[in-house]
Amino acid sequence: MREHWESRLGFILAALGSAIGLGLVWKFPYTVGNNGGGLFLFTYFACVILIGIPLLIGELLLGRGSQRAAVGAFAELAKEKPYWKLSGWLGVISSFLIMSFYSVIAGWGMSYILMSLSGVYQKLSAPEVSAIFDTLSHSGSISLFWHFLFTLITTGIVLFGVRKGIEFWSKIMTRMLFVILLGLFFYSMSLEGFGKAAHFVFHPDLAKFKFSSALEALGLAFFTLSLGQGIMISYGSYMQRKENIPYMACIVGVMVIVVAILITMIIFPIIFTFGFEPQQGPGLIFKTLPFLFAKLPGALVLSTIFFILFVFTALTSAIPFIEVPATNIMELANWPRKPAVLVVGISAFLFGVPSAFAFSHGIFPNWQAVYGLNFLDTTDNLISTWLIPIGGLLTSLFIGWILKSDVAKSEFPLGTGWGLFYHTWHFFMKWIIPLTIFLIIVQKSGVIDFDRYFHKEGRHGTHSIHYESSQTKSP
Predict the structure, then answer these.
(1) Residue 323: C-alpha distances to residues 94, 300, 349, 379 (Å)
(2) Any idea which fold 8-453 has?
(3) Domain range list for the chain
(4) Over the stretch 155-180, which tens digit does the pLDDT of each residue have?
(5) pTM for the whole thing?
(6) For 440, phi and psi rounded to 5 degrees?
(7) CB 314 within 8 A of CB 106
(8) Alpha-carbon gap, residue 245 to 418, rounded angstroms
(9) 111-148 burial, b for 16+ CB within 10 Å, e for fewer?
C-alpha cells in the first residue's frame, strides 16, 4: 500500500524544504546583484507566479492522478505511448546527479559550522579568509569526509519513509529554517547598510537589465521550485485525492518568494554595511561573508547560525534527491524501501567522489583540460543546461498535448473550488510554458545569444549553483 502524507502541513513543509535549497541561499543573492537588483527580483516573482506555479500544479497532478513516481506516472497516464517515460527518467537521473555534487557543497557548509564555532576566521584579513576556502575546496580528503557525512545523514532520513522520515524531519527542519531566517533578518535590520540594500534590491534599474536577465529569472524560478527533477511528481503521488493542489502550489510558490526576499535582505545589508559590491561570484558565501561576519557584534554566534541555516536548506532539499531515484526503483523493480534507499545513497556517494576531489585534481587530473570544466562543474552544467530544462519541457508538453483532456479536467478540480481556472492553466501548460522553457534552453546552450541579437552586450549566466575557483574574486 502506498504511503501518503499524514497532513496537508506535512506536504507543504516537505515541498518548501525541497524548494528552499542552495539555489536560494547560494545562487539567488549574487544573481540579483549581477542583474541589477530590483527589476530582476520583480521579474523572478512574475516568473514564479506565471510559470513556476502552473508547472508545479501540473507535476503534482501527474503524481496524484497516477499514484506513481516520475517514471511510472508517465507510463500510467500514457500507456499507448511508453516513450514518454523518458521525461520521468530525466528527472530521476537529474536528482541522482545533483545529489552527487550537492552533498560536496553542503559538506563545505558543515565544515564552516565547525570553523565558525572554533573562531577560525576571526582577526584574519580578507585574502586570508579567502585562502581558507581555497584550501578547503582543494583538499580532496576533507571534502570527501563532509561529502560522506552529509550523504549519510540524508540517506538515513529517507530510510524511514514518507511519514516517519521525510515528513517528520521536514516539519522540524523547515520550521527551524524559518526561525533562523527571521532571526537573521531582524538582525540585518539593525545594520547601517540595510537601507542601501533595500534600495538596491527593490529599485528597478533598467540600465542593468538585459533580455538574458529575464531568462535568468525564469530559469531560477524553475530551478528553485524543484521542477523538472521528478520531485514534485513523486511528492504528488503521496497526496490523497481530496487535497487542494492549486491552493497548496500557490502557498509553496508564495513562500519561496518570501524566503528569497528574506535571504536577499539578510546578505545584502551585511555587504553594503562594509562597502562591498553585490556583484560577487559564488565565493560570496564562503569567502566574503565569513570575513564580514568577523567584523560584526556576536560574530561567532552569527556566523554559526548562518551556516546552520545553509546546511538546513541543503538537507531539506537533498532529501528528495535520494527519495526520487529510490521510490522509482521501489516501483519498477519491486524492491523494499531500505535496500532501494541504501543503493541510491551509496551510489550517489561513490559517483560524487570525483566531485569531492574536483578542485584538488586528485581524481581525473586531466578532466578540466579535456572538458573545460572540472568534474563537479561539468556535472552541474550538464544538469542545469540540459537535463532539468529538457525534463521540464517534456513534462509541460505531455500535460498540454499528450495527457487526455478528460483526465486533466477531472484531476484539476478535485479537492478545490478553483476549477474555473482550469482553462487558463491548461492554456499556459500548452503554449506559454513550453515556449518559455525552450527559450531558456536556447539561451543557456548558446545556440542564440539574445543580448547580442538585440544589439546588447552578450552575457551568459547559469541558473546552476556551481563554483569556479578560477573565476571567483576574493573580497
Answers:
(1) 12, 35, 14, 20
(2) Amino acid/polyamine transporter I (1.20.1740)
(3) 8-453
(4) 999 999 999 999 999 999 999 999 99
(5) 0.93
(6) -60, -45
(7) yes
(8) 10
(9) bbbebbeeebbbeeeeeebbebbbebbbbbebbbebbb
